[in-house]
């Protein structure tokens, strides 16, 4: 079976920087609290009127350029987000329209911080079975519109930022290069630990003035539970991926962990016995960009020359659902 490989990578971060000090001017928090617990220094916010698909468009253009392709070369779009342009239709079709193309299939994946890994696995399978040859995979988020900038929402508001990343997945002409394996998990028993419950379809009508007054349009999170599970599941899935690929931890040249909290990643790296410099982090500059986080990180490490042809990388993510996963790639 043909192996699939990432042929191009792009990212887009909105220009507007929002520091911890800016947030401290909006509600009761401090730079010290945020940095100590999360490592975050600043994040980017999209301007009023900017959609999730707009950030995705910029990242996709860059990915296409780096793959030497035009929008018309793409034959399928997989779009990962938890902050879609609208409740429906999916954001993939808006991106397709903005790219100026028609007809090709578009699929939205709603798996939060693990959304990019799920999407990459779908693209990998499509390419390996020969169904599609140029799959655009995008992770994009505009979190800044849906955060509660008061004391009641500060635990979540300080964590998230806006941004997008994109890759093009296609057949590899060298069988030793490409996506080696993907390991995807979920445990719905923890679905309510981190959620946005405004769309409660069991209620008739499903949104009321009361639900808005109660602030149900904002995400709610039991932070400690997320933290505890993340530091358990990340090392677990890393070992699973290593074992399945017959690799040792030292074989991995660079880990690209989802950027949810620097402390989670430091703790996970320590448990795995991986030096911090092999566990990439950029959360200091962007906060948690959820589905965008991994392709943004990938785009940066390529630019910085941290990975080159033949490098072994492992992406690993954990997030709401709970969902988690790991993907091994020979670059
Ligand atoms: N600024 C100042 N104080 C705050 C803030 C804030 N932004 N947020 C909470 N506090 C206060 C709380 O009110 C509480 O005060 P109290 O003791 O007077 O009641 C105190 O700080 C401690 O609150 P905790 O929630 O217990 O703080 P904790 O040490 O657990 O840190 C944090 C919170 C940083 C959110 C941590 O739990 C965490 O990172 N969890 C993981 C979160 C995560 O990764 N989420 C994203 C998942 S990815 C996805 O799928 C979307």
Apparent shape: globular
Helix content: 25-40%
- β-strand number: 13
Residue-averaged pLDDT? 97
Strand content: 15-25%
Distance between the termini: 18 Å
Helix-strand sequence: EEHHEHEHEHEHEEEHEHEHHHEE
The structural class is alpha/beta
Rounded to an integer, what's the Rg over CA atoms? 19 Å
Largest sheet strand order: 1-7-6-4-5
Structure summary:
The protein is α/β, with parallel strands linked by helices. Helices cover 33% and strands 23% of the residues.
Care to describe what's here?
By secondary structure, the chain is of the alpha/beta class. The protein contains eleven helices and 13 strands. It has helices at 20-24, 31-38, 52-67, 91-98, 115-128, 154-157, 209-213, 223-244, 262-272, 283-286, 293-303, and strands spanning 4-12, 16-19, 42-45, 76-80, 105-109, 135-141, 163-171, 178-186, 194-195, 220-221, 254-257, 312-319, 323-330. The strands form four sheets. The chain has a five-stranded mixed sheet with strand order 1-7-6-4-5, with helices on both faces. Strands 8-13-12-11 form a four-stranded mixed sheet, with helices on both faces. Strands 2-3 form a two-stranded antiparallel ribbon. Helix 4 (91-98) links the parallel strand 4 (76-80) and strand 5. Helix 8 (223-244) packs parallel to helix 9 (262-272). It is globular, with a radius of gyration of 19 Å. It starts with a strand and ends with a strand. The mean pLDDT is 97. The chain binds acetyl coenzyme *A (ACO). Residues 29, 33, 37-38, 112-113, 154-155, 158-159, 194, 221, 223-224, 226-227, 260-261, 264, 288, 290, 319-320 line the site of acetyl coenzyme *A.
